[in-house]
Amino acid sequence: MPLITPKKVNHSAIETFEANKFIAHSTGIEPKSQHVDSLNITIPIPPCFAISDYWKAGKEILYRRALKMSSLRPTSYPLTQYGFLTPFGASFLPIVHNIQCNPLWGDFAKDVFFNPLAQVTLFKMHQHRLFSMSFDGSTLCTDQYDSYFSDLKVTCTRSEFQRKFSRWVEQYNRLGRQYDEFIQSVYNKAPLFEVHSLVIVRKAVNDQNKAAQYNGFVELNIDDVLNERANEIIKLVMRNSRHNGVIGVLSKREFDIDLNHTLRLIFFVKKDSSDWIKSNETQLYKDLEPHFIDTPAENIGLGSFPSMNAGIAPLFQEQETNFYNINQLHTGQRLTALKAHLVGTDFWLRYNNQLTLKIERKVQMISNPNFISASEND
C-alpha cells in the first residue's frame, strides 16, 4: 500500500482551497475560466491547475486498480475516433494538456520544490510525453497512458519516494504544531487582535534595474538582503510594542512567476476593543511607514491579502477582515483559513526545499516594558 494515506496526510478540503487562494495571490497566478478544445470535446478548465490537482490525480492513480481513459460505453465525452472518454479520463486529460501552458512549471520553479506526489505525477507525464500526443482512444494511446500509470505506481511505492514524502509530511505537521502553539499564545494574551502584513520585495533582475541590483561585480544574495531588511524593521517595531500593540511576528518567504522574491512580515496586534480604526491611523502604520519604498531593485509596502490586511475586502461583522475576536461567530472558520494561508501552502510548495513560514518573535505572556529579547540585541 502506498505511503499516501489519510492517516499520514491531514489536509482538509477547506485547507486546500484556502491554501490555493494564497498561492494564486502570492505567485501572481489568479485563476480565470477558459475553454480548451481537445479531441472534438470542449472542457472548461482554469488556465493553470493548482498543485493540489496534480496531487489529487496522482493519489487517484495510486489507489485505483482499474484505470481506463476511454470506453465504448457512451458518456458525455465522445472521442473523434474510438469510443468515449470515461469520467476519469475526462478529468485527467485536461491536467495533462495544462502542463505546457501552466506557469507554475516554468522558470519560476527553478528554486521551488513541490509536494513530492504532485512533483512525481508531473515528472512522469513529461517522461512519458503524454502531452505530446492527442488522445483518441486508440490502442497506441491507451498503451502509452497505461505505461505511465504503471510507472507512477511503481515509483511511489519505492522506499526512496516514501522516505522523501514521509519527511515532507513530518516537516509540515511539525510546522503546524509550532503555529498552533504560537496562535494559542496569541489567543491567551489577546482575545481581540488584528493581523497586518508588510511585504519586502526583491525585484527580478532585468536590463533596467541591473545596476541597482548589483554592488559592483558582486551578486547580492537575495535571502541576505530580505532578511537584513526584515530584521531591521522587526527590531524597530518591537521596541515600540507598548504603543503599537504588536505581540508576535511571523515571516513567510514567497516568490512569483515574474521571478520576484518576497519576504512577508506578519504582525499580530493586540486590541483592547472592537472600535473600528483606519489602518493608516494606527501606531503600527506610523512605525512602518518610514520603511515604505519603491525603487528599481526593491519594494516595501503593506500586503494586500484580506485575512492579514485591512482595506482589501468589504467589512465583515462591521470590522476589517484582518480583525479577529475569538468569541465572535464564524471566527473559527476564519482562523482555519488564516492558518491555511500561512501554514497550508507549505504542504504544496516550498522555496529551496525549506519551510516558508518562520516564527520571528514569540508572544511574551509576561508583560515587561524593559524586556528586550536577545535577538533584538544582536
Automatic annotation (TrEMBL):
Protein known as: Uncharacterized protein
Superkingdom to which the source organism belongs: Bacteria
Phylogenetic classification of the source organism: Bacteria, Pseudomonadati, Pseudomonadota, Gammaproteobacteria, Moraxellales
